[in-house]
Structure prediction request, 528 residues.
Amino acid sequence: MAGTDRSKADAAAHIQPGPAIVLVRPQLGENIGATARAMLNFGLGDLRIVAPRDGWPNGKAFSSASGADVVLDRAQLFDDVPAAIADCQHVYATTARPRYMVKPVVTPREAAGEIRTRMGEGETVAVLFGAERAGLTNDDVILANTVITAPLNPGFASLNLAQAVLLVATEWYQAEQRAPTRTLDPGNSRASTAEEREAFYRHLEAALDDADFFRVAEKKPSMRRAIRNLFERAEPTDQEVRTLHGIVTALSDRRADGRRRFER
Amino acid sequence: MAGTDRSKADAAAHIQPGPAIVLVRPQLGENIGATARAMLNFGLGDLRIVAPRDGWPNGKAFSSASGADVVLDRAQLFDDVPAAIADCQHVYATTARPRYMVKPVVTPREAAGEIRTRMGEGETVAVLFGAERAGLTNDDVILANTVITAPLNPGFASLNLAQAVLLVATEWYQAEQRAPTRTLDPGNSRASTAEEREAFYRHLEAALDDADFFRVAEKKPSMRRAIRNLFERAEPTDQEVRTLHGIVTALSDRRADGRRRFER
Prediction:
């Protein structure tokens, strides 16, 4: 037991600051455990689990973690993706197939270099991984700024969950910092968090609802996705999110004024 | 069924010429299946299985291959490592821990570039992976020219078999050809095969046995390993192996002559 405690402490000491690994609606405890094992091989320790099918904690996860218990012990449980990434400034979504969204798509190697750079600049980063069979939904992917797709055999692209995490983790471990893909003036602003952007989307959608913008009910989900995708791609700073709030407020007030004027 | 046949044919069409993946004494059929799946994701199709604990074919391998049956269907079974690598000119051994042998040690990324180069020059290449718990024995590693060790968390290096294969396979898939690490004059010689080198070792060892070189029986295994390691590292050409045979023959004949002279 002393040996186990010591090896746990040893493993914990080798966890480095790294991106959060977010498992979205994972099904099998075995895969959560295998993911923790894959992570710890590369010094990653921030595991976030969204709505696991079989609840949490899950004994099967621990029995298949091959000793990476330190990662499972620290894992955080969330009800939905927005809650899991609330504190994150840049979010990556892993997908095996194209999603036909206008979003940058990078390989795990390219993502790894970017993540090193972003984290070196103090940003918080998360990588989303979907459930075993279906992967991430389009609504999950919309919440991400960038898509990661691994180069795989076009005739056979079939990774299990822990293997997908492994491909990202090994690249992250080996990555050097790359030149930033974007420069922020650090004196005036910082990258917005997912929570700040989410608050803006809710504000905007409430205003649009109020304005009867979503007339055709069936089109509402795709319109919402299109709006989110546009703004996520723009990667607004915290200051820009405040500006966007101001715009929505101003426009809805003007419309309200206009209506009053009309009613008058 | 037509769909399955078509997807098998599709997967087979996407297998590229690549290194042989040699599983040495694997225990669980599940891991053999998971290895086939990992391989096919990166277009690898040459799986060689040495003395699997539970025999071959193994139903559990097929049920855990997630459709990578084309790799299992083509897999070759061997009794020992020398037979499995007989046709290979350059052999890599994967190890998680240092083996204290004088051999080049490279990362999967470095190995991948070398393998692309070697195969581009027409060489045959194999990569050895050890059993689930213990990995490769020192006798297995001795048979390799180069060791591959992945960069992993020093506090927690614990990959399963298919994950170890995945790390090599993803690097191979992404690798560009690198400058050769060694230049052969292609007009006069080629890299020797493992079978040719093995025949030389047997010749040399028989001659040494005959000369009572292995006096201390307990030391024989380590002496044999040291000899093999030296020559594997030198990567002799086919011509050089013939020369080595000639040297051993000449020396043993001279010794035989000497003995005759002494007896006379």
